[in-house]
Every structure is written in structure tokens, then in C-alpha cells.
């Protein structure tokens, strides 16, 4: 067995041991297909107030500009599908934010994987990325054969649907590379039909500035009155396009204890959320991604849903 194959096999085996759902590898280089797509998306202002999307255009499309001497992009998926869902009479929180903030959980696992590679293979230069740097996660995961980009623009896998996080290690080591899988959305338009705000403007094209997740997390101003009654009780994020996707019938609960929610997150009803205090907010969301919207932001979202 050649060294590239051997290294790739031990990396994938360790990724599995660390709890990752799957691991795929692709050669680091310029993302030719994504370049005009990203440029067009930005020109049409589909990123709304997310001005950070305009930064580091070259680095977004070429990891060799992000990590000097990089040869491979190792893409990893980590399942977050919960064991239990919120009370049905509740304002809703996106499933990815039920437990501990994923940035910290995954960063820790990626560091362990990189340390393992350095111990087993030798001196390897590389960096770990979890949705916090200009890396097109979904494009790399698709290139690495972990799934295809669905019509809702999320990565989809036949085995596991789409309720998982995507992360990368970009390293200066040549490995054996995977190939992309085919698209299995077919003629289905469930996600497009279900989106209350019409954010999926075309198959495979989402106007980020129309997405409920954008309004409830990214937008810092008051929410537009024209959208009253269209948020389907989502107070942080939105899972509608994933919930209706037939491939998510195959989602299985995660095995990461840190993603388990505070009991009140599951138990609270609408009245509890409407009366939430800063202390309770801090208790439920102590190390959660919901902290991003802050107490005032969550209260603003709840007011918008209630009025």
C-alpha cells in the first residue's frame, strides 16, 4: 500500500474514533465552479447585512492562499440531530443550537485529529476551520464526496440527510482523494415550496437576506413588519427546509453529550419564553450559539412573533 493511501486510511479511522460522521479528502486548489457563483450572489446583495461575506474573496476560493503550502482539504461531518425536540407549544430554536456551541466542540476534535496526524505521520503543517474563516465548507465537503448540495443549498447525504456540521483541516500533506457524488434531489421541490419567506429563489440558490435564520440571528436592526406572521414561530434560526427534506428521514440522533440541551430548552412553552429573564437566558444558553443573538436579540425575536 502506498503512503498516500495508508495515511488517508488512518486519518479516516481516527476521525471516526473521534465521533465524526464521515471524512472525505480533496486536493487543495482554486474552486473554479464556485467563483462566478459566489461573485454573482454577492453582486445581487443576497448576503444582506452580512458584509463579512465580501471579505477575503480570493481566500474563500483558494485554500492555498489561506494555508501556505497546503495540498489537501480534509472535510468532516459531525451529526447534531437531537434525541428529543422542543415542546410543540413553543417558539422554536434551530436544532444546531440546542447544546454547546459547535465551534468549541469541533475545534477541539480537529486539534486532536491534527495532533494524531503529527504523531503518526510526522511533521504536518495545517489549520483547523469551523465556520469561522473564509472557507466554503459545503463546496469542499461536496468535492470530497461527502454529499451533494441540495436545492436548499445545504449539503445532503443519502445516509444521513443534512443535520450535521461541516469542518475542515487544510494541510500540507498529499493524500488519496475522493470524488464527488451525484445529485439525488431529482424533481423534488419540498424545500422550495415550504420556505415561508421565499428565500430559495431558484433551485440551489438561496437569497440569504430573505432567510428566517438571517433575520433572527444576523440582522441587528428591527425586524421588517412586512414579514409579520411568516416566521412560523422560529425565534432563533430556522430548520424548515431541512425538516421537510425527504432525505432527513434517515437522520439519527447524535452521540455527542455536549450537544444535549438544557432541560428548560425542551420544556419551555411560549409563555415561558415571553417571560424569560436575563438570568434564565444565561443559564439555558451558557455556552450556546444562541448567545450570538444576545438576550436583547432573542427578546426582539419573541416580541415579533408574539405581536
TrEMBL record:
TRNA binds at residue 220. Keywords: 4Fe-4S, Cobalamin, Cobalt, Cytoplasm, Iron, Iron-sulfur, Metal-binding, Oxidoreductase, Queuosine biosynthesis, tRNA processing. The keyword Metal-binding applies. Pathway: tRNA modification; tRNA-queuosine biosynthesis. One of its GO terms (molecular function) is epoxyqueuosine reductase activity. Its cofactor is [4Fe-4S] cluster; cob(II)alamin. InterPro entries: 4Fe4S_Fe-S-bd, 4Fe4S_Fe_S_CS, QueG, QueG_DUF1730. SUPFAM superfamilies: alpha-helical ferredoxin. Binds 2 [4Fe-4S] clusters per monomer. Its EC number is 1.17.99.6. It holds the Pfam family Fer4_16. [4Fe-4S] cluster 1 binds at residues 185, 188, 191, 245. Residues 173-205 form the 4Fe-4S ferredoxin-type domain. Belongs to the QueG family. Catalyzes the conversion of epoxyqueuosine (oQ) to queuosine (Q), which is a hypermodified base found in the wobble positions of tRNA(Asp), tRNA(Asn), tRNA(His) and tRNA(Tyr). Monomer. This is Epoxyqueuosine reductase. The lineage of its organism: Bacteria, Pseudomonadati, Bacteroidota, Flavobacteriia, Flavobacteriales.
Amino acid at each position: 500500500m502506498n503512503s498516500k493511501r495508508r495515511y488517508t486510511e488512518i486519518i479516516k479511522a481516527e476521525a471516526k474514533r473521534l465521533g465524526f460522521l464521515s471524512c472525505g479528502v480533496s486536493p487543495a486548489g482554486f474552486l473554479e465552479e464556485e467563483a462566478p457563483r459566489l461573485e454573482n450572489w454577492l453582486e445581487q446583495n443576497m448576503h444582506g447585512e452580512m458584509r463579512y461575506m465580501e471579505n477575503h474573496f480570493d481566500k474563500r476560493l483558494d485554500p492555498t492562499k489561506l494555508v501556505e503550502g497546503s495540498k489537501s482539504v480534509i472535510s468532516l461531518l459531525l451529526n447534531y440531530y437531537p434525541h428529543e425536540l422542543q415542546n410543540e407549544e413553543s417558539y422554536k430554536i434551530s436544532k444546531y443550537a440546542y447544546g454547546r456551541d459547535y465551534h468549541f466542540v469541533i475545534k477541539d476534535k480537529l486539534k486532536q485529529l491534527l495532533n494524531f496526524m503529527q504523531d503518526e505521520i510526522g511533521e504536518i503543517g495545517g489549520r483547523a476551520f469551523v465556520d469561522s474563516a473564509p472557507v466554503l465548507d459545503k463546496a469542499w465537503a461536496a468535492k470530497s464526496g461527502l454529499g451533494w448540495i441540495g436545492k436548499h443549498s445545504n449539503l445532503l447525504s443519502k445516509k444521513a440527510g443534512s443535520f450535521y456540521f461541516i469542518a475542515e483541516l487544510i494541510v500540507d500533506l498529499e493524500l488519496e482523494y475522493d470524488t464527488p457524488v451525484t445529485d439525488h434531489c431529482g424533481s423534488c421541490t419540498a424545500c422550495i415550496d415550504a420556505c415561508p419567506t421565499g428565500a430559495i429563489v431558484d433551485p440551489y440558490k438561496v437569497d440569504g437576506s430573505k432567510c428566517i435564520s438571517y433575520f433572527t440571528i444576523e440582522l441587528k436592526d428591527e425586524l421588517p413588519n412586512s414579514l409579520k406572521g411568516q416566521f412560523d414561530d422560529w425565534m432563533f434560526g430556522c430548520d424548515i427546509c431541512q425538516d421537510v427534506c425527504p432525505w432527513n428521514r434517515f437522520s439519527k440522533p447524535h452521540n455527542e453529550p455536549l450537544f444535549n440541551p438544557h432541560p428548560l430548552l425542551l420544556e419551555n412553552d411560549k409563555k415561558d419564553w415571553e417571560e424569560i429573564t436575563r438570568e434564565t437566558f444565561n443559564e439555558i444558553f451558557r455556552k450556546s450559539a444562541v448567545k450570538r443573538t444576545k438576550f436583547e436579540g432573542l427578546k426582539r425575536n419573541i416580541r415579533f412573533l408574539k405581536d
